[in-house]
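Notebook entry, structure prediction.
Reason for the run: the old model in the group folder had no record of what sequence produced it. Starting over properly, with the input documented here first.
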Amino acid sequence: MKKVLIVSSSLRGLSNSEILAHEAERGAIEGGNEVEFLSLKGKDIKFCIGCLACQKTGKCVQKDDMAEMIGKVQNADVLIFATPIYYYELSGQLKTFLDRCNPLFGQENKFKDVYLITSSYDDAENASDRAMNGLGGWIECFEQSRLTGVLAGGGLGEPKEASDRADLLQKAYELGKNV
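New structure, fully documented this time:
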């Protein structure tokens, strides 16, 4: 049994990336894992101010919702990040979240396998490449970790459209089941 943390970064209700993330959650649960679903909706997440105090103390000086969420990231065996693609990149919410995980740098972290689920209007094969590169840069900072899998859900322009895409729902379920 693995401890799986799913971080959904879409702030839109009925978002396609969140629908796919919930399907991965269902697969991970049915695969016998301990799963926590964390939505960034409604969370108070300030921007990193670059003071680097966290590198000395292991904690961020800012007071917001990140302290608790950083602990969840640190203690998960598997991370699944779900993001809509905006301008061919990670959502700003996810990028800010990753930046604020800076206290984890140089610490003992459990997470090894990192997965990415994206949704985009564009259905081109490379529509998620920049997002993968953005997440890849974060992963490179943690020697024990690797990008294990990506589900790029293209051709999803309208809210809740992923609910009608059996192919993507199945891929998301399988991603979760095989963590």
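Summary: The chain has six helices and five strands.
The old model has been moved to the deprecated folder.
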